[in-house]
Amino acid sequence: MEILFILLFVFVSYLLGSVPTAVWVGKAFYGVDVRDFGSGNAGATNTFRVLGIKAGLLVFLIDFAKGFTAASLVRFFGTIEPSSIRWVNIQLLFGVSAVMGHIFPIFAKFKGGKGIATLFGMVVAIHYEPALYCAAIFILMLLFTRYVSLSSMSAVVLFPVLLIYVFREDAQLLIAFGITAAIMVILTHQKNIKRLIAGAENKANILPKHRRDRNH
Q1: What is the pLDDT of residues 105-120, one digit of tens each?
Q2: pTM to 2 decimals?
Q3: Euclidean distance between CA atoms 112 and 107, whole angstroms
Q4: What string of DSSP letters covers 9-76?
Q5: Are the CB atoms for 92 and 176 separated by under 8 Å?
Q6: Which of 52, 69, 132, 159 gives a 20 to 30 Å CA spacing to 124?
């Protein structure tokens, strides 16, 4: 019976992740589909770029909450010891389902974002200490380089390094997930990497004076 509940929560997590926050916020409050501008991604980064800080922050927080909530659904399984290997493994299962929902949302024709905010949310729910270190690296990189893509990749790549060498994590599946996530983020940022090498990557306006023109 428990396996059926786990499968049900996997589906619920996917649906939760499938909520296309950037698309709905853009259309509801700005009359804009963010997928038609900027990078074309339905994520927080493109929302910041297209609609500005307020919209971008709202989308980021909701997308973060999707991952955090999905990974926290394990709390409904009272027979599993908190923080045990099995507990963490189920958190990973639910969290990854939410991330996949964000990347391939059923509510937005399977065209979503890159899943960074949702991924960060699930990681905070699972192991908040290395997640906070990664967040610090992201912020520092962003302040110094103003490249969101480079900051994101740096933070995600750092995660498995911290798990292995700093926190001496025993959960092998969590370590495997961290390594896989780092590889996947690099693969999904291939265009960004090419633009970074060519010096053509867009820089973030960290403290913009006004919203950027949506038509450019």
Answers
A1: 999 989 888 888 999 9
A2: 0.86
A3: 9
A4: HHHHHHHHHT--HHHHHIIIIIS--GGGSTT---SHHHHHHHH-HHHHHHHHHHHHHHHHHHHHGGGG
A5: no
A6: 52
